[in-house]
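Journal club prep — side note

Before the paper discussion, L.F. wants everyone to see what a predicted structure for a comparable chain looks like in token form. Sequence:
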Amino acid sequence: MKVLEKIKYPIQSEMVIFEKKFRNSMLSKVSLLNRITHFIVKRKGKQIRPMFVFLVAKLLGNGKVNDRSYRGASVIELIHTATLVHDDIIDDSYKRRGFFSINVLWKNKVAVLVGDYLLSRGLLLSIEYEDFDLLKIISLTVKEMSEGELLQLEQSRDLIITEEIYYNIIRKKTAVLLAACCSMGAASVMSNQENIDKMYMFGELLGMAFQIKDDLFDFNTKVIGKPTGVDIKEKRITLPLIYTLNSVSKNEKKWLINCIKNHNKDNKVIKKVIDKVKNVGGIEFSIKKMKYFTDNALDILYSFPKNAYRDSLELLLNYVVERKI
């Protein structure tokens, strides 16, 4: 049995029902919109975020989910999909999951409006059923994600970034959405705020590890299905580079900053920067930090009774930090 199949096993029926509910949540009276959302659904990803919602809900809900769990999972996936559509416009990406992106097939104007529609559907889904606690979770998440993207743009412009600022960026950009998945799963089946907060922190720590893993791909010269050096080309300063900049001599630091600022499109220069990061120990340092966040997330998870749902959450946590792409 493949890892994802093993993770999904305790929530197989919930995921089948979810897919139908998720499709219905995007329906519109505008035929163009329905064609595009159909295209999105047909090219779905691994659906890791809804899996977190259902596994946490079953962990804390005595093995059961409810309608709020399904709505919470749909809200999360709608918001996540909206951010992906908007990200492709911002990054001028022409492919998503191996297929042409919405902005390439239907142009930027349509893509912006589709992203806005998905975002509004996610928020309205909570309002329609008066899930105001879930609405608060996702609204704060969207706010923080927007702040994270803008903070990263601001810092990339000046290349003045510290480890502390980096953690703040990735917490807002990535970790808060996984935190929302876990807290939504908990809030959908219980009102115990302590456990809801614990699951939020579990998701946040996991999200920190997830993003560090994602950043490490940028320095992997092996063929993994994802291009290397993209962050450097975009002048995004990630943890391996931060460690390197803080570990080298003044002259080497000056050379690295010059490479990133003025020669970031030159593949030969990018390779030299990647080699420097590897030689200085930036990769090992980042892996150690990723393990720190993972271990702290596991400590929270282990505070709950062991069962099939906790086992799947542990497998899912390990999967997102050990994935090859």
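L.F.'s comment for the group: The chain has one domain: 3-322. Keep this in mind when we get to the figures.
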